[in-house]
Write a structure and sequence with these properties.
- The structure is a single chain.
- The chain has 245 residues and is α+β, with helices and mostly antiparallel strands.
- The chain has one domain: TATA-Binding Protein.
- The protein contains 5 helices and 9 strands.
- Strands 2-3-4-5-1-6-9-8-7 form a 9-stranded antiparallel beta sheet.
- It is globular, with a radius of gyration of 19 Å.
- The relative contact order is 0.17.
Length: 245
C-alpha cells in the first residue's frame, strides 16, 4: 500500500526523534560538521537556520521531497515530507543514526528513546472535531455522549497507545488524530493522523541503532496498513469528501 500513501492524503511524512538524557553539545564546530556530513549525503539540504532552542538544516521550502534535520538540547529530529518511497524517508533517518552519535558524543546509556512517526495530513474545511466524531464513533455508545440537543463537538482528538509485547522495554505504538481550528478561515487547516512507534532504552551499541530503526519501520508500516489506513484515515477521508462537519 506504500505507493498510495501520498494519494490518500494531502501530505504524508515520516519523522524520527532520538531523545537523550543529557543535553547535546551545541558548539559551532560540532553542529556545522554534522550538518555538513548530512548535506554531503543529501545535497538539497542547503538551508541552515537558527530558531529558539533549535538549530536546523533544511531543503528549500516547497521542494519535494522536503527533508529537514533539527537539533535541540534534549533530542535530534529528522523528517521527510512527501517522500518518493518509504525507503527514501528511512534513508535520511538511517544516515542520522549512523553519524550523529559520533559528532554529538551520544552513547547507548544516554538514549532515552527512539521514535518513528508516520503522519498523514488531510485538508478539511468546517468543524474538524465534528468530522472526526462523525467518521469514527457515529452510532456507537461513545457517540451517544455527543447526542445532545444543540450540541456541537469542539474537542474530539482521539489518542491511544499500546505496548507491543510482554516486556516493559517492548516497542510501543501510539495512534493520534489532531484537529485544528482555522485562524482566518481563508485556507483549510489539515486534520492530522499519526502513528508513533517508540522504543525506550534500546540498550544496543550505537552501531546497531539503524537496526532499531528497521524494526520500528517494519512494525510501523504493518500497523499503518492494517490499522491506521482502514480504521482512521479512510473513514475520516470519506467524511471530508462527503462534506461532514
Amino acid at each position: 500500500m506504500e505507493a498510495s500513501y501520498k494519494a490518500l492524503s494531502s501530505d504524508f511524512y515520516v519523522n524520527q526523534k532520538v531523545s537523550v538524557k543529557l543535553d547535546l553539545p551545541s558548539t559551532r564546530e560540532t553542529v556545522l560538521d554534522l550538518f555538513e556530513r548530512v548535506r554531503r549525503a543529501y545535497p538539497t539540504m542547503q538551508n541552515f537556520r537558527r530558531y529558539e532552542d533549535e538549530l536546523a538544516l533544511e531543503s528549500e521550502a516547497g521542494s519535494t521531497p522536503h527533508r529537514w534535520l533539527a537539533i535541540r538540547p534534549a533530542n535530534i529530529r529528522s523528517g521527510v515530507v512527501n517522500p518518493d518511497s518509504l525507503a527514501d524517508a528511512y534513508g535520511l533517518h538511517r544516515c542520522v543514526l549512523e553519524v550523529a552519535p559520533y559528532f554529538l558524543s551520544i552513547s547507548p546509556l544516554d538514549i532515552d528513546f527512539i521514535e518513528l512517526l508516520f503522519g498523514f495530513d488531510l485538508h478539511a474545511a468546517g468543524n474538524h472535531d465534528a468530522i472526526v466524531a462523525s467518521a469514527l464513533i457515529a452510532d456507537s455508545p461513545l457517540g451517544a455522549l455527543l447526542d445532545v440537543e444543540n450540541g456541537t463537538p469542539v474537542d474530539f482528538q482521539p489518542l491511544f497507545g499500546m505496548r507491543l509485547g510482554p516486556s516493559e522495554q517492548s516497542m510501543e505504538a501510539h495512534f493520534e488524530v489532531k484537529t485544528r481550528r482555522s485562524s482566518d478561515g481563508t485556507r483549510p487547516e489539515p486534520i492530522s493522523i499519526y502513528l508513533t512507534m517508540r522504543q525506550f532504552d534500546p540498550g544496543v551499541s550505537v552501531e546497531e541503532l539503524p537496526h532499531v530503526l528497521a524494526r520500528l519501520a517494519d512494525e510501523g508500516q504493518r500497523l499503518v496498513d492494517a490499522a491506521l489506513v482502514p480504521s482512521l484515515l479512510s473513514p475520516i477521508r470519506s467524511a471530508i469528501m462527503a462534506g461532514g462537519g
